[in-house]
Amino acid sequence: MSMNDLIPAIKKVLEEVDVVLGWTRSPAAGVAVPARFHTPDEADGAIFDSTCIHNLAVHLPRLKNSKVGIVAKGCDARSIVQLIVEGEVSRDRIRVIGVPCPGVIDVKRAWRCYGFGKKIEDAGGRVHMEGRSVPREEILLHKCHQCRDQEPVIVDLAAGDVTSMTPPPPPDKSGIRERFAAMSITERREFWREQFSRCIRCYACREACPLCFCRDVCSMQTREPHWTGGQVNAIESEMAQQVRISHMAGRCTGCEECERACPVGIPLMLLLEEQNKIIEELFAYRAGASLEDKPPLLTYDINRDGGWR
Amino acid sequence: MRFIAEDAIPRLLEHLAGGGRTVWAPRVVRDSVNTVLFAPWSAGEPVETGAYTHLSAKAALLPPTERLFGFGYLQAAGEERIELEPEEPEESPVLFGARVCDARALAALDALFFPASGGFNDPGYAGRRSGLTVITLACTTCDSACFCSSFGKGPAETDGSDLILYPVANGFLAEPVTDAGSELVRLDLFQDSRLEKPELAVTARVETAGLREKFIDLFSDIDLWRQVSEKCLSCGFCAYACPACHCFNIFDEMSGDREGERCRSWDSCMFYSYTLETSGHNPRPEIAHRYRNRIGHKFSYFPANRGEILCTGCGRCIRGCPAGVDIREVIRTVQER
């Protein structure tokens, strides 16, 4: 997509909102970083490319008092829909600029392999870095491989030609997923103990998650209720994360932001993908897939279904 | 100068660990995509001497959680009393593979926790710090997040190190900084060498002069702080990755209702709960208030109170920020006001 479509779209939306959430290019890192555009002049710095990994929907519940425009990939749009369905964001105060997404590059992985801030060039079906190049599908985020959401479910203004999108490449065969799938329950327990032993409880997973909106009163951190101890160790960290993940049942859209945000590389998506699969099998429900669907775990009605006995 | 071959490094680490001391070294984490962290090393494990660690080395001195003491309620002669069980002091560790920016941060931590440097007497920290040995890897390359040249001697800094290793072909030139370093290079693992020290990296520079006063002048400009923190998601990553951030929380955890332990864990001023008062009032309700404190503590309050800037330009907060916040852009914006 060319910026010729995006920038005018942002400017148009700015006529009716206070701020537009989008991306600009980081001078230090060369890739996209989230940005807020308040004026048409600022909007001239807007970009969209395959390094626009962030899910900007995370900012919507934090901007409750503004009218907000948001540039959204198809997967981001699912988070927006889920926030609306749950009543966290009101439909009439947001304007969605839908962008066709070619799949986004796993910038964190690329940098951890090749060095931070190295120039990433996505051209001709290959991603070029440091004089080397790999086929795109080897370095896309995992979610892009099974993408069913190229077309945003919610769009007020489309920027770019939706039909020109690259079809999603074949599913990733990343080593860790295969090995995890082959593990027994006991081995999985050992695996997670080791993974969570390096959690530092920075809560980047929670803060980067658009749907994790308890935030400041999160049970990972509160003393009342005191579900998890304050010690930073594998047992408490795993408990804290299990609470978070079970609260995501039927709500997680699989955006991978929690895993991307994790500084110590805990593969949180293994847990969430498994749970999302179960929810889809049990309830034929995908979070954020439609404004009309009722989240299965949010349909409890005390009058109809009865209370605790 | 003395030289140590790359394949002699494991023997050096074994020597250092010989007396039962814990040796912290950079290691690639298994089952993670090239995550490199400082961790206690044991014989036979590979050490990563090329890549940067994604978190600083401070956990070697300030563990993410430290047990301060255990306690229990005892019934004796019809009276209840509280029995305390103090923690045994730990032996000072060895820190291998720190970078100049890690070593330099020790001065900032010492200024608060180490009586020999004018800090308070923090028994846990002081115990680990007093006999600490720091073997630093000099940087001949850097990345676009590095900005250590903004502080002191930049990549040529020797503060905080006992021994500095300069990467050369097939090994390292070793330059002692302290007596402990001089003693190490006398080991048979080192040979004399006539090689020249390599050129050091040239890292980015941001102007921090005058920031201490400037910050105070701009303290009340809340719109400025909202602007510079608008991307921030308010997680604790930057504080936890930082070699100089050191805030903590102290709390009791019970096991059952008769005994428990008092612990100290890392805390971050970016958390809402950090300043939440018992009344429910929070003096820093917005991310902008908290981010302002982050900048103020690093570049204004701590320098004023303890004489050290709480930043060494290691760039970890920039490399790992999930929201793409770059503290250098914030400093520049503030300086330009």
Topology:
The complex is a heterodimer of chains A (309) and B (337).
Chain A: H1 3-14, E1 19-25, E2 32-37, H2 40-43, E3 68-72, H3 74-85, E4 94-98, H4 107-114, E5 121-123, E6 126-129, E7 132-135, H5 136-139, H6 142-145, E8 157-158, H7 175-182, H8 185-196, H9 204-208, H10 234-247, H11 257-261, H12 269-283, H13 302-305
Parallel strand pairs in A: 1-3, 3-4, 4-8
Antiparallel strand pairs in A: 1-2, 5-6, 6-7
Helix pairs in contact in A: 8-10
Chain B: E1 2-5, H1 9-17, E2 23-28, E3 36-41, E4 65-76, E5 79-86, E6 94-99, H2 100-113, H3 123-130, E7 133-137, E8 163-168, E9 171-176, H4 179-185, E10 190-192, H5 211-218, H6 222-228, H7 237-241, E11 248-255, E12 259-266, H8 287-306, H9 316-320, H10 327-336
Parallel strand pairs in B: 2-6, 6-7, 7-8
Antiparallel strand pairs in B: 1-9, 1-10, 2-3, 4-5, 4-12, 8-9, 11-12
Can I get a quick summary?
The complex is a heterodimer of chains A (309) and B (337). With 309 residues, chain A is α/β, with parallel strands linked by helices.
* Residue share in β-strands of chain A: 5-15%
The proportion of residues forming helix of chain B, as a percent range, comes to 25-40%
Q: What is the 3D shape of chain A? A: globular
For this entry, what is the oligomeric state of its chains?
A: heterodimer
Tell how many strands the DSSP assignment of chain B holds: 12
Task: Give the CA-based shape of chain B.
Answer: globular
- In terms of DSSP E residues, the strand content of chain B is 15-25%
Question: Could you characterize what this model shows?
Answer:
The complex is a heterodimer of chains A (309) and B (337). Chain A has 309 residues and is of the alpha/beta class. Chain A has two domains: 1-170, no CATH class; 173-304, no CATH class. Chain A contains 13 helices and eight strands. In chain A, the strands form two sheets. A five-stranded mixed beta sheet of chain A has the order 2-1-3-4-8. In chain A, helix 8 (185-196) packs across helix 10. The radius of gyration of chain B is 22 Å and the shape is globular. The longest helix of chain B is centred in the last third of the chain and has 20 residues, at 287-306. An eight-stranded mixed beta sheet of chain B has the order 3-2-6-7-8-9-1-10. Chain B has a four-stranded antiparallel beta sheet with strand order 5-4-12-11, with no helix packed on it. Chain B has one domain. The termini of chain B are far apart. Chain B is an alpha+beta fold and 337 residues long. The interface between A and B is large, with 52 and 47 residues.
